[in-house]
Write the structure tokens for this entry.
Amino acid sequence: MFDAGLVVAPVLLPFLGAAIALSLRARPAAATACGLATVSLLAVLSTLLFLQAQARPGAIRNVFGGWPQGIGISFSASMPGVAFVLVTALVTLAVSIYALADIGPRRRRAGYDAMMLAMVGAVNGAFLTDDLFNLYVWFELALIAALGLLTLDRRAPQIDAAIRYAAFAMLAATLILVGVGMVYGITGTLHIGSAAKVLANQPPGFATALAAALLLGGFALKSGLAPFHLWLPTSYHTAPISALAAFAGLLTKMGFFALLLIFAGMFGVGRGAPGAAQLVPLFGAIAAMTMLLCVAGALAQTDMRRLLAYHVIAQVGYMMAGLALATREGVAASVFYMFHSIIVQANLFLGAGLIRHATGSWDLTRTGSMVRREPQFAILFAVPVLSLAGIPPFSGFWAKLIVIRESLAGGSAWLGGVALLAGFMTILSMASFWSDACWKSAPGAVRRIPRSGLVAMGLLSSATVAIGLAPQWLWGIALQSAQSLEAGL
Amino acid sequence: MMILYALAGAGIMASALFMVLSRNLVRMLLGLSLLATGTNLLLFLAGRVRSEQPPIIAEGAKTLGEAADPLSQALILTAIVIGFALTVVLAILVLRTWRTASTVDARNVDAAETLGPPKSRDPIDV
């Protein structure tokens, strides 16, 4: 009973918090307190769930309504999901602390707390569910909450961005839904593990390949992979920076998590992918295109939010490269990269928000002087910047190293070469970002930055350093995740 | 019968995709909502249309014999609700654009794409 409750707690708690925050939104201080309390409790429960799941892998599950497994909607605390729930809680906590100074009473009255909590609940739902249709539902819930956050200030650019985002996401959802329907028609079940067993014993057919292609298209659109990447840098940047950090950390990764679940788990890419064998060669091309196009796009930008938005998708390209190798180690490499990327992306956007607060501009040509005026910030900000660039000893170095090592070991040396090239371009982009924002003198006055922002960045930066210093531990978890995805737990 | 349904579903999807590609935002909105309808029809077919008898358990029998798949009907109901919610949200956004920019032509709705001069792109946050 305790276990069954624990596995749904990361979903129920944020929605409960969202309901309370919604009723309190006329009083911004109370709503803030409610949001922060919910997120802190969520962090505790997620840690508990992670420890329980690690002690007894595959044992903690809950099928709603007492239905037999395979018919009822089931949640299970299996490896990559619970670890991502923990990282989500960490990122949400940092964002909530940052939001103390960033999100004012007007935005709180507009429902910031409730929508942020609802989005986190939906993201956690996607990480924990075992059911294909349920996965689709969580994506749609996260989309609606994200649209609310995106249009919080009701400015014309935000409305425009929300239309772009909603149109692309709805199209993706349709592809996903038809794909899910076809998988159900072929296998007679929506439970991912059971569907994997049916698909493994079936000769590959036209319908299976079509279902796989629809699911690939839908989730590639959701996670911003090339050639469906351009909606992201033209819509994300208009959101309030606290919401933007959460989007960058969580939403595209949620899309990639679904790709992992479906292609590594259900179609069994690591086992030769009986159903989706025709699609796997395409993965490498998608990954290479995403990495190169998006890093090149980032090099051309001077607006901090857009520059980082391009990097968000370039990073998804690296994860896709891991999946494209079609080996268990390759899948583990993507899982490792996801952990690193969730934390670093959120941290970079928080840093960009603080630079904006200090210098009054999003444009890199009008920022500067952070080293002189805020040395603590400049050092804290260097951690995610160097980590994204892949400089040792930070987490990004290990993540990139593992992807490149596994590409060489998996016989796709060209993919490793592309990853290396994109890595060099990332170093260039990040070096000019940091020196523009911190070293150069600013054209205007530089304001003090709020301490709560530094605390939030410190939280995420220390996680990045911790991964950098003990990569072996996380690699162990990533291998365990790849194994549990393959076993269909 | 199945092939007829499948063709109808494909026809609806094709018309919907044509409308989504339109530059008129209202037409795009209608296209997306039509797309959801086509999806529901395909979902219905995925569960297979088997029987024309009402789903009632015969006397003495323990299980339902010949009946259409109830699970896909539950899926469609959920998908209708979600599709409706998303259509309403998108309709609000389009209405808002019409009220502020007096246009529903996608070519003129580009506030997010063109950042504008630095002063207007860096509004004071609250």
About this structure: DSSP finds four helices and no strands in chain B. Chain B has a mean pLDDT of 84. Chain B touches chain A at residues 20, 25, 28, 32, 35-36, 39, 42-43, 45-48, 71-72, 75, 78-79, 82, 85-86, 89-90, 93-94, 96-97, 100-101, 109-113, 115, 118, 121-123, 125-126 (CB under 8 Å). The helical segments of chain B are 2-20, 25-46, 70-101, 118-121.
